[in-house]
Amino acid sequence: MKCRVILLSLVGALALSGCTLVAPNATPVRIAPKDVPFGLLNKTIPGTNGVRVRFRTQPVYIVDASGYLAPSSRIVPAPPALATVIEQLLLGPTHIEKSAGYTSALPKSLVVVSAKVRGEIGYIDFATPLSKLPRKQQLLAVGQLVLTAYVVGATRGLEIRVAGVTQNLLLPNGKRATLATPEDFQSLLNG
After folding, report:
1. Consecutive H or E run containing 118
2. Among 75, 113, 127, 159, which is most buried by a count of CB atoms within 10 Å?
3. Which residues of 152-171 are buried (b: 16+ CB within 10 A; e: fewer)?
């Protein structure tokens, strides 16, 4: 009895495996724009009151193969916001960049609580401090953040906070400051 049920199930499965919901086609078929449903070809997002999303490339700074900071492009919604760009930075180098020896000094576990630019100063609040990183990694990580924030509008510098408490940031000259400026990290740029 069991063998018959199993045998019939296998025969049924084989018969159904030859069926498909979509007929195969050797060449692509052009679909007329009038036949595309749900307004998917409209210039605005379907189901909204004319909302559009535009994207642009935005530089973020990662660590190149020689251990210096170098810009790399990411695609973000326009206009770019500091939070969005920092999230892209935290994703680290792409697979192609990794194969070329690029890395990131920022820990993969770093969590952004908030990030914004006010009065040309960037403010990033993290869940954990960067001060626990080794010295060289800490310098590169702060440099990545400062230079990336600069191209988003934080032209006067960057302040990093942990749970709302302003951190003393390590600078390449060995000093510490609560406001790190792009000028402080020029020595870490490649070129």
Report:
1. strand 112-118
2. 159
3. bbbeebbbbbbeeeebebbb
Give the tokens for residue 1.
Answer: 């009895």
Please state whether beta strands 157-162 and 121-126 pair in parallel, antiparallel, or not at all (unpaired). parallel
Residue whose entry in the numeric block shows the structure tokens 């906070």 = 161
Residue 112's pLDDT band, with cuts at 50, 70 and 90, is very high
Dihedral of alpha carbons 42, 47, 52, 53, sign: negative
pTM of the model: 0.74
Question: What is the rounded CA–CA span in Å between residue 29 and residue 37?
Answer: 16
The tokens for 28 are 């692509």
Residue closest to 61 by CA, chosen among 128, 150, 178: 150
What's the rounded Cα separation, in Å, for the pair 74 and 97? Answer: 12
Closest by CA position to 104, among listed 69, 133, 150, 153: 69
* DSSP structure class, residue 188: G
Distance CA 148, CA 182 (A): 9
Express each pLDDT in 117-130 by its tens digit.
999 999 999 999 99
